[in-house]
Amino acid sequence: MARSDALELERRLRRRSPGRIVLVTLIVVAALILAWRVVAFGALEKYFGSGFDDRRFDKLETEFDHRRRAFAQADARMRELAAAHPRAERIGWSLALICVRDAGRAESCEPTTPRDQATYEALGGVDVIVRQSKDDGRTFFRSYADDPPRYTIMHAHDGTDVAAYANDRGFRSTRSLKPGWVILGPIPDVDRENAQWQ
Predict the structure, then answer these.
(1) Which of 6, 19, 99, 113 is deepest in the core (most CB within 10 A)?
(2) Which helix (H) or strand (E) holds 45?
(3) Which of 129, 35, 25, 13 has its CA nearest to residue 74?
(4) Residue 82 in 3-state DSSP?
(5) Which residue has the higher pLDDT, 92 or 4?
């Protein structure tokens, strides 16, 4: 009886040997790492994959189609602001503020008027409207949605080569809306995105 108990104890110890514990631990850790990578790459594909632009483009195109007049009014207002500030390097318009940065000066901001607020609110999901001297009269309606990446509706002169412009600035993709209007996909390179909007 004692001998059989000793054999049973020896068998149990072999089953729980440190080598086996380490091996099982490594297998479990490797499986967890693999599962995490699958989930992470799936999330990246969702946000940066080929299908995500189409879904976001469809949504932005629908919003643009329902609010064309509001976009045209906001673009006209930005042209007025640009004419009033001919030396402006950048004009940024949000719901609460219109900020102007003249060449060689710090940015100065003023509260939006009730008329400007009404024009802005009619746009729906736009987070900021930007006009920059380096972009030759283009107006950008930037939309962050709930999370990055950031998509942009651009109004440009007729005849602008949108594909060349997007490629030059690092935008990942484009979709034409109507003459002079286009959706720009995000700029995946953070440094290029910062350079574009600063």
Answers:
(1) 99
(2) helix 18-48
(3) 129
(4) helix
(5) 92
